Amino acid sequence: VEATDDDCLNSNHRVCDYQIKTANVPFRIDSNGSISISKPLTGDKYEFDVVAVDCYPSSSNANVKLISEPARVTVKIIKSCKPRITDDNPSKLTIRSDHTHIFDTVHVDTCDETCAVENIVSTVTLDTNGIDSGCALEQCTLDDHEYVFVPKDVDSDRAPQSIYMSFDGLNQASIVQKTEFSGQLKNTFAIRMWMKHSNSEKRSIREICLNYLLVKNRHHAALLVQSGYLKLLIRKGPVSSNDKNVYSSEWVWKLSQLNDSQWHSYKLFVDYPNTVDLYVDNQLFVPGDDNYRVVHDFALPIIEQTGDTVFSVGACWHGRFARMAQYFTGQLSGLVIQQKEELSRSSTCVQNCQQYLDMPDIQKEAGLEFVSNVNRSVWTLRAESSESMEQLLKHVVYRNTFEPIGPSGQRSVSIETAVKCLGENYTYNLPTFSRRLAIDEQIRPTNIELKGDTNLHPTEEALNQGIYLFQHVSIFTDALKKDQVDISDCSINTTPDLSNGEHFIVPDENLEINNIRKDLTQTGLVLSGFGSIDTYQFILQQTAFISKTPAKYVDRTFSLVCIGAQEQITTNEVRVRMHVEKQTQPAPPPAAVLNNKLYVDNDDMKENLFDIDVSSSSTAEKLTAWPIAIGICVSVSIASVLILYLVVRIRSAHKQRCTVSNPGDDMHSQMEWEDDIGLNIIVNPLEETKKSVPPMNVQNMDQIMDEYEGTSSEDDEECGEHSPNEYSSEEDEAYEINEIHAKKHHHQLEWDDEAMEYGPKKV
């Protein structure tokens, strides 16, 4: 504040002091009228009275100085404001999904009290920090036509170590022969190279150049460095001079890397005359108003006698002076031109990235703008207020379409904002806001797998002694080291439930050594306790199942499942199906065989009779041969009986021709008839036994026939010695009767019992 004194005694009209008359205000005032803060301010507005003190005392009282009327002072407090973008959440954000809003909680503060926003522009940039973005740059590789002008190093993806070409800017350059490259650039081609450059001269220096051979110095195409700019020149033509259209002719990029004396990778994908995309160190160059421009020009006209063109590296050929000019200073490695007729637009090669920024859920409104580059790594947002910019930023989404999400590591997203206040001709920049996006390394869950037998066929006797259900079980894991994976428990469940006579047996010494507990239940067995895979595998292989009672079932199922200790991962289930082989009595023989018993009084034959209690397989084989054996026996028996019958009839007929008056002869004949002719042999083929009866002995039969023939001869001789009229004495008669009985007994002894078939068989 300031006060003046109109007293004539005060020539300079100044006052000597100022005072604040209002008590308890956080301000003070000095003799010059300057008001300052004496205490921390808590309010937004303060009012107090200030008075001025005269330098001279009053005329009435020399000890009192005059004081002016109080002046009312009002102080309005404006809080300090610094335009910026803030966020209450941490600057690091962990990405766990392929669709993440990264600016949900940001706040844009432009200090509205001091600046009425007219325009606000933010540039959001994703920097992967060298992590693979998944952009399909290699889709642009042109393998069909590749022209190497400077050789590549061993690893063309890294800065050259040994293979490169140096240019001194004075006289080092080379002309490419037509046999190596025709000089004809297609509408779509790519240029790749590593370059190290430190020249700060303002003159233009050419790396590659396509120029006329004669008369003119016109450049058809060139890649050149000028100060801090990289330029690509492509002139359309030559065409008729009647063409008055202009075409994109020169693309200019302002690059900070050009003159830093470091190796950098440069890749240009050309789709003439539409687009040219530049990649520096594999990062897509983001064009802006201050770092990129395209120059348009007329097409080259047709000029006579200009001759052919010359393609050179390191300088340009000037046809007018027939010499090289504009030499390049620096080092080059891996300078390659690739081209193909059907090369697709370069933009399609980089659109399909697997890491990018997106704004999928926003609609265009008046006063809002949002555009991106071709691979959506950079977005430019424009709004008319800080609130509108906040809404735009909240729609920005980080996308990661890798399967699984990755690669692991940190990448960053930055926001650079420029604000223009209403009524001002300049803009001011807000501090850059950055957010780190972290993707943790994916820990793949450890899998545990069981493998073993699935079918068992034990007998009841084997079950009574015990069987190993999981003798061949194996436990596998996909962990790098098997001994780092533990199992917490394994359970064996049975279907149906166990009966009183059924139980599992686990060797207790294995359990005690490895601190594994067992729990036997009605439904099975549970093994619990932390143990290695090898420990559980050994215990399961030694676990036995015993059934002391006859099984009341045929099929039983055992299921085995284990659980990993670290992540509680459940293994697959191994099902073992047990089919019990029931023990059955031997099958009884057929009824027909049982009825074909042969009863004889001959003890030798009884010992050789067929035993019915043989195995079923042997019985089946013998039954198969019975029809043939029966047929043979019957045929031999009938033949033997017929032969015997004929022999007896011949003998009987011979005796009838002998006329003997002796009554003893008649008795002898009658006895011979009764004994020989009256013999009946009956065989019943239906009552034969299974065992083959030995065939009749034919040799014995021939012996019998010889004996009968001998007997008939003796009778004939006796008949011839006695006349019919001669009577023998009683002694002779008795002798003849005894002889007949002796012969009869002799005939009975001649039968071969072993050669005869037994049983009633009627002939």
From TrEMBL:
GO molecular function: calcium ion binding
Residues spanning the membrane: 625-648
InterPro entries in alphabetical order: Cadherin-like_dom (IPR002126), CLSTN_C (IPR045588), ConA-like_dom_sf (IPR013320)
Keyword flag Repeat: yes
Region described as Disordered: spans on this chain: 709-733
Keywords assigned: Calcium, Cell adhesion, Glycoprotein, Membrane, Repeat, Signal, Synapse, Transmembrane, Transmembrane helix
Boundaries of every Cadherin domain copy: 1-85
Pfam family, one: CLSTN_C
SUPFAM superfamilies per the UniProt record, alphabetical: Concanavalin A-like lectins/glucanases
Topology of this chain in the membrane: Single-pass type I membrane protein
Localization per record: Endomembrane system; Synapse
GO BP, one annotated term: positive regulation of synapse assembly
Domain of life: Eukaryota
GO CC terms of this entry: cell surface; endomembrane system; postsynaptic membrane
Stretches with biased composition (Acidic residues): 709-719
PANTHER family: CALSYNTENIN, CALSYNTENIN-1
Stated family: Belongs to the calsyntenin family.
Name of the molecule in the record: Cadherin domain-containing protein
